[in-house]
Structure formats: C-alpha cells, structure tokens
Write a structure and sequence with these properties.
Helices cover 42% and strands 11% of the residues. The protein is α+β, with helices and mostly antiparallel strands. The protein binds flavin mononucleotide. Flavin mononucleotide (FMN) binds next to helix 4.
Length: 209
C-alpha cells in the first residue's frame, strides 16, 4: 500500500480499464471507511453507499450509461476541443478509454454508488457527498485499485435510479466502478497553477503560483 498522501493525490487518475477479477471485500471496506471519514454539512452523514456486485443490477444500469455515452457524451467530446493542456492525441486516448468503460462498465467487479437521503438535490447537497467520493478515489489508489468517478448515467437519471432500486427520497451522485487496473497508475495531467489561481482580485495572478 502506498501511504505518501501527495504522491497518491498526484497519481489518482481515472482508471477506466479494469480487470474483472474480484476485489477482496476487506479492501472495499477500507475504501468505504475512507468515504465515511469525509466531512458532510453539520456532520449529518445523510450519505448511503451501495456496494453493487450483482451482475443483473450492473447490466441493467449499465445500459443507460452506454446509451448516454454513445448517443450524447461520446459524440459531443469527439467534436469538441481537447481538454485544457491535452494534445488531440492524448485527448483521443482518454476518449477511447472512456468508450471502453462505457462498453465494459457492467464487467467492473464492484461498483460503489454514493447516495444522499432526503433534502433537495442541489450544489449544496453535492458538497456533502463529493468529499466522500474523492476520499474513496484516493483510498482505492492507495490500495492499488483502479476507479473512476462517473456521472453520465444521470442523463437517464430516472431510468438508471429505478434500475438501481433507489427509494423515492434517495438520489445517487455517482457510479464508481472499482477493480484491479489493466494499465499503470501515473501522474494526472493538469494545467499549471498560474493559469487557474488568482490573488485577491479576480483575474490577477497570485504572486506565489
Ligand atoms: C463530476 C465528474 C463527472 C465525471 N463523469 C465521468 C463519466 O461519466 N465517465 C467517465 O469516464 N469519466 C468521468 N469523469 C472523470 C473525468 O473525465 C476525469 O476525471 C478527467 O478527465 C481527468 O482525468 P483523470 O481523472 O484521469 O486525471 C468525471 C469526473 C468528474 C469530476
């Protein structure tokens, strides 16, 4: 296990090509413990996490993800400019990996689906679940497991959440497929601080970037 926090942060990439091999529940438990260490508004912890391994449930939900990718998101990204700082070639590699995930999502051995119970589902509510999601991504990386934060199934939110079997007052915020990665972990690609950090005045560079 890698325990250098900053090294883990720098190398927690979306790992979209996963082996179908099972993941020991003890490791998933560690990932979930990391999730519940995250902050939530007022420490209310209205989060619930589904650990989905049932092939029938995964297949049923994955059809909506696949549809979202092939009909909407894939074509949109293919006709758009690359992500900031990425060459066309690098961006196309990312799209190929994203398409692979869309076609193989149901084969990931474990999905964790973070949900919130009750309340309104807004930017504020999201703030009480995404810290737990990032903790899970970092914990998975530390344990040598690949994972990706995915939300595009929400294009078909009603259908996908029905397939997940969620009660009326519960909403999901992501599907995180987890498994042993086929590829290698490596550094994330991001633009330098100078391009995204301002000082006290909007648009003015922060002197120490
Ligand atoms: C809010 C959010 C939603 C995302 N949804 C998806 C998704 O549905 N499918 C997917 O393959 N990746 C998804 N991603 C992963 C991003 O595409 C990825 O983090 C980004 O390209 C940077 O790449 P990296 O994580 O490998 O550094 C999502 C990320 C975020 C933050």
């Amino acid at each position: 296990m890698n325990t250098d926090l900053f090294e883990i942060i720098r190398t927690t990439r979306s790992m979209r090509r996963l082996k179908p091999d099972p993941v020991p529940p003890a490791l998933i438990r560690q990932v979930l413990e990391a999730a519940t260490c995250a902050p939530s508004g007022g420490n209310m912890q209205t989060w619930r996490f589904m650990v989905i391994t049932d092939p029938a449930v995964k297949a049923n939900v994955a059809q909506w993800y696949r549809k979202g990718w092939h009909e909407v998101v894939g074509p949109r990204y293919r006709s758009s400019a690359p992500a900031p700082g990425a060459s066309r070639e690098k961006f196309d590699r990312m799209l190929a990996a994203a398409e692979h995930l869309a076609d193989h999502l149901h084969e990931a051995p474990v999905w964790i689906v973070p949900c919130l119970v009750g309340g309104t589902h807004t930017r504020t509510s999201g703030s009480s679940i995404y810290p737990s999601v990032q903790n899970m991504l970092l914990a998975a990386r530390a344990l040598g497991l690949g994972a990706t934060l995915t939300t595009l199934y929400l294009l078909f939110e009603k259908e996908a959440e029905a397939a997940l079997g969620l009660p009326e007052d519960v909403h999901s915020y992501a599907i995180i497929p987890i498994g042993y990665p086929l590829g290698k972990f490596g550094p994330v690609g991001r633009v330098p601080l100078q391009e995204v950090v301002f000082g006290s005045k909007w648009g003015e560079p922060w002197a120490d970037a």
